[in-house]
Amino acid sequence: MSKSSDPPVVLLHRPASLNFMDELLTRNFQIVKTHTSSDPIPNSLSSQAALARGFVNIGLLPVTEELLSKLPSLQIIVLTSVGVDHIDLAACKRRGVVVTNAGDAFSEDVADTAVGLLISVLRRIPAADRYVRSGNWVDSGDFILGSKVSGKRVGIVGLGSIGSHVARRLEPFGCIISYHSRSQKPDTTFRYYPDILSLAAENEVLVLCCSLTDKTRHIVNREVMESLGKDGVIINVGRGGLIDEKEMVKCLVQGVIGGAGLDVFEKEPVVPEELIGLDNIVLSPHSAMATAGSLNNVGEVAFANLKAFFSNQPLISPVQLD
Amino acid sequence: MESIGVLMMCPMSSYLENELQNRFNLLRFWTAPEKSVFLETHRNSIRAVVGNASAGADAQLITDLPKLEIVSSFSVGLDKIDLAKCKEKGIRVTNTPDVLTEDVADLAIGLILALLRRLCECDRFVRSGKWKTGDFKLTTKFSGKSVGIIGLGRIGTAIAKRAEAFSCPINYYSRTVKPDVDYKYYPTVVELAKNSDILVVACPLTDETRHIVNGEVMDALGAKGVLINIGRGPHVDEQELVKALTEGRLGGAALDVFEQEPHVPQELFSLENVVLLPHVGSGTVETRNAMADLVVNNLEAHFSGKSLITPVV
């Protein structure tokens, strides 16, 4: 029997390499880990998991109705991701489980990566680095010219925390910023496009920073890419599912669009084979948020959410469940 | 102006060649089998030289061309032009200053991000299929890092402006304090390096700035510091750099320029904490065409008696 003064039981799921919250959590809560056997979750959950009132989900483990049914005491799910597309939010709502996400903890790092990918694609940085390392500069002479970053027209899809950081970073480059989102933001002077097709038609670069929902799945389809055009570039730091990947591969190979910088893919860690040989793209292994600084930030945010919940204080970064 | 002889030193832009050929008597120096015979033949018709950062007008060439009036360089840097000799002979010199600024500053920020966030290594990691066997390592945050800039001229200022949007505190070194900026000034490069996470070389190459980044500066920057060179190769003591990197005394380097281009020290090829570019700072399609236009416009201004657009001498 647990006494009311005992620290709450918290279930922890994490990839083997990400132990950055272990110590803090163990000091403050009774921690139950998901991985007690090699069986897949939820079958492998220990009996103690049934007592868990909190669930810290580090990484992108899907939270399904089935998993929730094994956690009858659960009251709060604390995520370390910004995106919540791996969580059955409707099921959480039905069961009265609240959900928190990473809030703004990653915004700067993801925005930095978006700008880094944008410059890398236009100026062909990884391809140029390969050119030098393979000895081609000596053997074949000057490298092919890249395209200018300053002054480009950049359309941002999703002007939330990350999108706003991207816009702010690109302004001193003289880039002309516009955006598409569900609704027009009252506190910005950037031009708003109510539909993504016209955003793509008016811009040379699209940066995807929105969350993945039923409404945004494949928001970038063939028509959008055709509208962006043969010199157009797509940067994706949102989720792989925002782009129709099959069509994107065709568009890149056929020259319908000019290039892409991709941190996320539809079936990670599987990346379409056809992309591997292309020089006009830059590929990144979903690491836009993965700096030491970000992990500290997200650890603090996650811990603060748990603390707040168990002391009846307002949550730091609650997720809307509808 | 069709009769005016314009000597182009080496191939630099086919767009520029076309523009020059449409207006002047264009002479392509690199096509001459015997340089001395070629100069002897055309010495009285050549009134302009078009050079760049690797081939300009040295004292000998200036002496060989008695009718030379102007050297219009397809570059910002003029280290291949004997400026003293030009001044003495009353030969005008122009460069292409502002057109390069944005591209070089853009690349500097791109190099910082590529280096700290390991974007080239990320790209290799995915292409080689290694992602399927595990996650990529953590990288280093850029936003908020202190950026030290050597040389706060046009390019240095453009880099500072961009880095400010990443919430980076800006430090700089230059010969004199700039009264109109509130960035922190350091009177020596060593002190600048000591107080910065990221050191960016953005000054012109002169006798005083050759090897301005030496072993002492690299040690001051330290094992967590990174060096970005978008200036000229000889700004950095390359041998010392290779040592500092391979011994782990310096955190990393992103280099667009080298001491003996196109030769890059082989020891750097296997390092993950470096980004190596083949001198592409001013290399965008848009900018090359703008530079070519400026070279042509300066020549046209000179030969029609108007004031030069971007004079140096």
Automatic annotation (TrEMBL), chain A:
Residue ranges annotated for the D-isomer specific 2-hydroxyacid dehydrogenase catalytic domain, each copy included: 21-319
Residues of the D-isomer specific 2-hydroxyacid dehydrogenase NAD-binding domain: 115-288
Keyword NAD among record annotations: yes
Lineage: superkingdom: Eukaryota
Keyword terms: Glycolate pathway, NAD, NADP, Oxidoreductase, Photorespiration, Pyruvate
Gene Ontology CC annotation, any one: cytosol
Keyword NAD carried by entry: yes
GO terms (BP aspect): oxidative photosynthetic carbon pathway
Gene Ontology molecular functions: glyoxylate reductase (NADPH) activity; hydroxypyruvate reductase [NAD(P)H] activity; NAD binding
Family: Belongs to the D-isomer specific 2-hydroxyacid dehydrogenase family. GyaR subfamily.
Name of the protein described by the UniProt record: Uncharacterized protein
Source organism phylogeny: Eukaryota, Viridiplantae, Streptophyta, Embryophyta, Tracheophyta
UniProtKB/TrEMBL annotation, chain B:
Keyword vocabulary terms for this entry: Glycolate pathway, NAD, NADP, Oxidoreductase, Photorespiration, Pyruvate
Family affiliation: Belongs to the D-isomer specific 2-hydroxyacid dehydrogenase family. GyaR subfamily.
Domain D-isomer specific 2-hydroxyacid dehydrogenase NAD-binding: 109-281
GO molecular function, one term: hydroxypyruvate reductase [NAD(P)H] activity
Record CDD domains: HPPR (cd12156)
Signal peptide: none
Organism: Arabis alpina
Name of the protein described by the UniProt record: Uncharacterized protein
Record GO cellular component, one term: cytosol
Domain D-isomer specific 2-hydroxyacid dehydrogenase catalytic: 11-312
An annotated GO BP: oxidative photosynthetic carbon pathway
Xref: InterPro entries: D-isomer_2-hydroxyacid_DH, D-isomer_2_OHA_DH_cat_dom, D-isomer_DH_CS1, D-isomer_DH_NAD-bd, NAD(P)-bd_dom_sf
Residues passing through the membrane, by range: none
